[in-house]
Amino acid sequence: MASLATEEHDAALEDEIRNETETLKTRLDDLEFQLLLTEPYDERDAILALHAGAGGTESQDWADMLLRMYLRWAERNGYQAEILDTSPGEETGIKSATINIKGRYAYGYLKAEHGVHRLVRLSPFDSDHARHTSFALVEVLPEAQEETDLQISSEEIKIDTFKSSGPGGQHMQKTSSAIRITHLPTGIVVTCQSQRSQHQNKEIALKVLYARLLEIERTKQEQEKANLKGGRIDAGWGNQIRSYVLHPYKMVKDHRTDYETSNTTAVLDGALDGFIKSYLRSRVGATK
Fold first, then answer.
1. pLDDT by residue (tens digit) across 255-266?
2. Burial profile 26-49: b = 16 or more Cβ within 10 angstroms, e = fewer
3. Which end of the chain has a smaller Cβ tally under 10 Å, C or N?
């Protein structure tokens, strides 16, 4: 048809072929990308936890920048994001935060973000404006379905209440509404103090606990699968996965895939799809 259109100088036919080709290409891209999201929990909502690394104010500010980045990513992609809990930094930023991101394939996409993120920049908090390197850990967990994924008896958990350590004055919680839940068999501790209601804090803490336990089970299954097929087991999530360099040049680079961009402003404003898709494509066949 393309040859015929060229020979006949048929502009309408050329446009028709061009449109049909674009339609087929889009359909192929969609089908191809569906192959990247076929693991058991990919369709689920995600729980994303951020933790500032060592370094005080610098790292706490970096964790806050990452929190904004993921909230913007969710907004860009039509996901509903809810901040479940935050622990404010001593001067600025956050020590930690937990977000629930709801929508189909939220976990499937965001699992690409699990790991240590490194920032290099001129410090806005240093009078000498020296270059600083900061680290923050991003954990991404699939939201657990209590009825089918896990069964936890009341004897396995210990629930403590305490007063929230929020801002002072009239906003200070005068009742013990904050919740600490300890899972006795594993020693996992989850706290929540962002909500005014003890009941709400307990619900959120249980949700995060279930997600953490499911992640342990999921990781165990992946390791067993890798052992059976004789494959290489990843060293873990501890190593840095991505660097964000703002000085002396601008570059964001993913160390797992070598995908990079110089548009750091866009990335920090939530433009993560290039990194996510590059990582997911690199994983095709790796977990089969």
1. 999 999 999 999
2. eeeeeeeeeebeebebbebbbbbb
3. C
pTM as predicted = 0.81
Cα 276 from Cα 110, distance rounded (Å): 7
Helix ranges restricted to H, 1-56: 2-8, 11-34
Query: Quick one: pLDDT at residue 49?
Result: 96
Report CA-CA distances (Å) from 105 to 18, 34, 36, 101, 129: 32, 10, 11, 10, 41
Mean pLDDT of all residues in 72-97: 94
Which of residues 67 and 199 earns the better pLDDT score?
67
Residue 104 CA to residue 43 CA, distance in Å, equals: 5
Q: Is 216 exposed, middle or buried (0-12, 13-18, 19+ CB in 10 A)?
A: middle
CB contact set of 8 (below 8 Å; sequence gap of 6+): none
pLDDT band with cut points at 50, 70 and 90 for residue 242: very high
Per-residue tokens: 63: 């964790």
Other beta carbons less than 10 A from residue 257's beta carbon: 19
Contact yes or no for 8/104 (Cβ under 8 A):
no
Looking at residue 280, its amino acid is L
Q: What is the pLDDT of residues 138-149, one digit of tens each?
A: 999 999 987 677
Please report the pLDDT score of residue 284 as a whole number: 75
Which amino acid is it at 127?
A: S
Give the span between the Cα atoms of 249 and 13, in whole angstroms: 48
- Size of the chain, expressed as the number of residues it contains: 288
Tokens representing residue 113 in the block: 């973000």
Q: Which among 51, 112, 141 is positioned nearest to 242, based on CA atoms? A: 112
Asked if 270 and 113 touch (Cβ cutoff 8 Å), the reply is no
Domains annotated on the chain, with CATH = 2-34 (no CATH), 46-148+237-283 (3.30.70.1660), 154-226 (3.30.160.20)
